[in-house]
Design brief:
Blueprint: E1 7-11, E2 14-27, H1 38-43, E3 58-68, E4 73-76, H2 98-103, E5 114-116, E6 129-131, E7 138-140, E8 146-150, H3 151-160, H4 169-174, H5 176-180, E9 184-187, E10 192-194, E11 197-201, E12 210-216, E13 219-223, H6 232-235, H7 247-261, E14 267-269, E15 278-283, E16 289-293
Parallel strand pairs: 4-5, 5-8, 8-9, 13-14
Antiparallel strand pairs: 1-2, 2-3, 3-4, 6-7, 10-11, 11-12, 12-13, 14-15, 15-16
The structure holds zinc ion.
Zinc ion binds near residues 121, 123, 124, 226 and 272.
Length: about 300
């Protein structure tokens, strides 16, 4: 979308680059946590101004990630896609730009060898495909890549399709064509994607959700997927998340995630976190956990 919003982080020999499609989207905190209030947002000083407005609204991005090792080029979550019709106006008819941003890294769509979707919601599969202007068909954006879908995740959506929140057009346009062409591999939740890049299970948001752990040269990072949407959830992992399909499992996943990564030194890259998107989970003297974005 906008090259100025791209940002890269080094993790040993691995580089993770953020490509943003929707920058600084502001909405009511209810979009993430149904029982949270603007007053609670306002009271958490560390959220301001980067992750929340003065009025207690949340700020977030919609973005995908390119993970480069010396041998491999992996797209983790391919975002929303351009020119799409989705259930909310804000996600419809986004401008092109994702591939131009990718090319600015010296990467063509033919260079990508793997596309990994943490789960199969519309904002994590969008650029799996593009619409052929001649035929109107949805074609693979990365024709030389293997596309990794969680086996449990994929199978669940075969029966769920309409989940009450999303229609299934993103599955029809961005997942089904990949499977039909034989480009998909169905993976287990602890799958190793490449040397130093592996999945960790985190179901709850969706039935087969995973997040991605990166280890290289003694440095560590994790890309969250949607096990959380906003840094406020680092402090309140036990609270319900609006878009978790299994709310109890989502809570358990977040509690485990915060316990694992607080004070771990692992760089946490939030799939929907506004800038600074990457940072650390820090436990203060009272035992409260907060998210300290890099540079803050
Ligand atoms: Zn998402």
């Amino acid at each position: 979308m906008a090259k100025e919003h791209m940002k890269s982080w080094r993790v040993g020999d691995v580089t993770v680059t953020r490509i943003v499609e929707l920058w600084d989207f502001q909405d009511d905190i209810h979009m993430t946590m149904p029982d949270a209030t603007p007053e609670e947002v306002i009271a958490l000083e560390w959220l301001h101004p980067h992750y929340a407005t003065a009025e207690g609204r949340q700020r977030m991005n919609f973005q995908g990630f390119v993970v480069q090792t010396p041998e491999r080029i992996v797209v983790v979550d391919s975002c929303i896609g351009a020119g799409r019709r989705r259930d909310f106006d804000v996600f419809c008819d986004l401008p092109d730009g994702f591939l131009e941003d990718l090319e600015s890294l010296g990467i063509s769509r033919h260079d990508v060898d793997t596309v990994m979707c943490t789960h199969l919601h519309f904002d994590h599969v969008g650029w799996n495909t593009y619409k052929d202007p001649e035929t109107g068909e949805y074609r693979p954006t990365f024709p030389d890549a293997r596309y990794l879908f969680g086996r449990t995740e994929y199978e669940a959506w075969q029966t769920i399709r309409h989940d009450g929140v999303h229609t299934d057009m993103h599955l029809v346009e961005c997942v089904d064509p990949i499977v039909a062409l034989g480009l998909a591999d169905f993976i287990e939740p602890d799958h190793t994607i490449a040397e130093g890049i592996r999945c960790e299970p985190s179901h709850g948001h969706t039935p087969g959700h995973v997040h991605v752990r990166i280890s290289s040269q003694g440095q560590e990072a994790v890309i969250t997927g949607d096990l959380m949407h906003h840094p406020m959830q680092c402090a309140m992992p036990h609270r319900d998340a609006t878009f978790d399909m299994d709310k109890e499992a989502g809570r358990q996943t977040r509690i485990r995630f915060v316990d694992t990564y607080a004070d771990s030194g692992v760089l946490v890259i939030g799939a929907h976190f506004a800038e600074p998107t990457a940072g650390h989970l820090v436990r203060d003297a009272d035992g409260e956990v907060w998210f300290r974005g890099l540079g803050l």
